[in-house]
Amino acid sequence: MTKVKIITDSSAYLPQKYIDQYGITVLPLYLIWDGKSYRDGFDIQASEYYTRQINATTLSTTSQVTVNDFKGAYQKLLDEGNDILVLPLSKAISGTYDSALQALEDFKGKPIELIDTKLVSMALSFMVLTAARAVEKGASLKECRQAALDAYPKIGVYFTVETLKYLAAGGRIGGAKKLLGTALDIKPVLAIIDGKIEPVASVRTKRKAMDKMIDLIEKDAAGRKPVRVSVFHANVPEEAAKLLEKAATRLGAEESILSEVSPAIGSHTGPGTISIAYMAG
Length: 281
Hints:
By secondary structure, the chain is of the alpha/beta class. It has helices spanning 16-22, 46-55, 67-79, 96-103, 121-136, 141-151, 165-170, 206-221, 237-251, 263-269, and strands at 4-9, 25-27, 30-33, 36-39, 61-63, 83-87, 112-114, 155-160, 187-193, 196-203, 227-233, 255-260, 274-280. It is 39% helix and 25% strand. Helix 3 (67-79) crosses helix 4 and helix 5 runs antiparallel to helix 6.
């Protein structure tokens, strides 16, 4: 029986145990820093990246997963007799989707489905896990694709940053641009809406920002079960662990996952970023 294999990218930063459990293929985005190229999550890990970022005098830049990386992954999985579902980060944030699409030109008629997930980080991982769990139950490629699409309206993500300078420098600031120049002690609460970064609230402290994120998820998820939640962070593991415990308790979460913000995403959000992704229903 043909099995479906899932391809995603390193922006999802899904913990390794899930990658191993479900046989997920992860393709790296690239970081370019002081003239050297690093494969996100492969050549440089999150803790190492953020420690360096705090004291850096130069900013790293990022590059999408390459067309050739996708071609190689497609060929390998097809040669092994698999169908393929491709779930990259939001097209509005990265050119990775376009690389995946361009690579498909060499595989016309092959059993490969590509979705613009409109998600990133652990929000993307919840879609990936949904599809992977459908595979585990014996779903076909068409059924896995539909499971991923059905998951999208159940998923959301909020995050707060120490400073907006990284989002501004990387050109990923989206609707949060209106917050530039506001008081330094204001902490924005941001969301990914239709694949783009948008501000949803501003509070005085980071602690209030974290509480606000849980409040927003409680409102979003009201009456919907089960709830799955993930807190992911940029070099603030203790804050993240406490937030995950609090969020999981308040939301009555069936599943809770602690992860990190991938270096490729953190290059645009900066150290100290803390985020909550959820899936409800």
